[in-house]
Input
Amino acid sequence: MPAKSHAPMTVPEYLASLPDDRRAEIERVRRVVRERLPEGYVELIAYGMLYYAVPLSVYPDTYNKQPLGYVALASQKNYLSLHLVPVYGDKQQEQRLRDAFAAKGKKLDMGKGCVRFKRADDLDLDVIGEIVASTPMERWVEIAKSVRRK
Output
């Protein structure tokens, strides 16, 4: 009987589980996220992705009792994905992203807040870094609390 595989539980396990070509692309984007991530957010594995979130020790009252997500990075079946949650509910941030991609002649393949890509070069890493850096953790918690009250 073959050994049972398990989902990666740590960031190094997650990265090691990726094929070399995908790992290289994920690590390029991860470097930008980590360099620009405001103080206090933590990097962990959640939902099968690299997940950048508010620790439960700071904000335990999330709707699902999991750390409050801010940004996520994943290797999907047919593409890589960067989940920019600050873009999801903010039309100005979304337009900023769209305008920056257009200005650099890059095609933006995006859902509501999920940017799909094959290579890091498909992204405008400058604007990605700006968006990641745009919301201090305390402000992100305030936004989450205000949405929960509605």
Summary: The radius of gyration is 16 Å. The mean pLDDT is 91. The chain has one domain: 11-149.
